[in-house]
Amino acid sequence: MWFGRRSNLRKLACTDLSLTVDDDVIKSVTVVRDLGVLVDAELTTKHHISRVVSNCFFQLRRLRQIRRSVGEEVTKRLVTALILIRLNYCNAVVAGLPQSTLQPPQRVHNAAALLVSDTKPRDHISPVLAQLHWLPVNQCITYKLHLVNVKHCPDYLNNLVHLTTDSATRPDLRSATRLLYRKPALGSKFSERAFSCAGLAAWNNLPDHIQSITNTASFKRQLKTFLFSACSYY
User: Fold this and answer.
1) 84 shares its domain with 163
2) Phi/psi at 180 (nearest 5 deg)?
3) Radius of gyration (Cα) for the chain, nearest Å?
4) pLDDT tens digits, residue range 73-93?
5) Which of 68, 97, 190, 215 could form a disulfide with 101 if both were Cys (CB 3.0 to 4.6 A apart)?
6) Same domain, 95 and 24
């Protein structure tokens, strides 16, 4: 696969991009699947989002047929297992995308909430989401970034970020007394989607009392409460 901007990839359209290994010819592709995530040549993740949204709506149509038979509690468990888990799987890879790109997953999220609560499609969705205590899609992404920062960050990602206190040039600054990360120098808007930028930017926006929590369970509770407080329907 050849990665690049659309303009650069268009320049390669008339070029033979295949590789010859012994007697085998390997042709380039525009989309590949890696650990369940569809990666496209422009790194827009539009193919991945489209596939996830399509699969989720298919499951919702199936669940809608049995909603009145199984009741709200069973429907909620089925939606969690078949819909929400798909929306939240590897959702950190879509961090930093514009709201227009995240609208299709949010529509799935809203449709799932309407199904669980047995609410009419034309009713306002905000009270339903507030009642179910569901974070919107963009806040779910932020939540995942925080968990990666605190609990699940592997070494190859942990080495990409550095605390302000580690900087020899900032020992006397007020920011050095907080658990903040240094923002790397960025060459483009596109680079803000990298974990080394998106992850630390999300962390730096947290209040001090949440950053200082060492217990994972307490951190999750306080983090979710903080993200809910930032939602428009609260």
Assistant:
1) no
2) -110, 155
3) 21
4) 999 999 999 999 999 998 888
5) 97
6) no
